[in-house]
Amino acid sequence: MKIALIAHDKKKNEIIRLAIKYKDTLSAHELYATGTTGTLIMGETGLSIYRMKSGPLGGDQQIGAMLANGELDLIIFLRDPLTAQPHEPDVSALLRLGDVQKIPLATNVGSATIMLEALKNGTFFMNAEE
């Protein structure tokens, strides 16, 4: 499974804690991240991560392009809803693409934990038809 990991500045410690807690689960998958987030997670966990540019410098758009091309299966994007982001249009576009492509996208620690627990336990299923 191809997983993208993204976090706004005030959420970087939270995504690092998640990556540490679920290191064994994440290590079995192909990981992608925006630049700074990927560097920090790699430094704390030793996980192998393909890093894009920093979010404000186009990393969110790079992840969005992968999403639009059907190249991602899960996105964990810990957003800071209380701080204005200079690249907010890119963030909104990424969230919209996740919905269009029907890709699970966690935007906070609670939803990310549920998804990672399901992945860990083998109960995470993709493309369930209604």
Contiguous low-pLDDT stretches (5 residues minimum) are: none
Quick check: average pLDDT?
90
Number of contiguous helices: 6
End-to-end Cα distance, whole Å, is 22 Å
Find the count of extended strands (DSSP E, 2+ residues). 5
Listing every helix as H and every strand as E from the N terminus to the C terminus, the arrangement reads EHHEHEHEHEH
Spatial sequence of strands, sheet with the most strands: 3-2-1-4-5
Global shape: globular
Specify Rg, calculated over alpha carbons.
13 Å
Which structural class should the secondary elements be placed in?
alpha/beta
Q: Tell me about the biggest sheet? A: 5 strands, parallel
Strand content: 15-25%
Q: Helix fraction?
A: 40-55%
Kindly describe this structure:
With 130 residues, the chain is of the alpha/beta class. Helices cover 48% and strands 15% of the residues. The protein has helices spanning 12-21, 23-27, 35-45, 59-68, 88-101, 109-121; strands at residues 2-7, 30-33, 49-51, 74-78, 105-106. A five-stranded parallel β-sheet has the order 3-2-1-4-5, sandwiched between helices. β4, α5 (88-101) and β5 form a beta-alpha-beta unit. α1 (12-21) packs across α3 and α4 runs parallel beside α5 (88-101). 31% of the residues are buried. The mean pLDDT is 90.
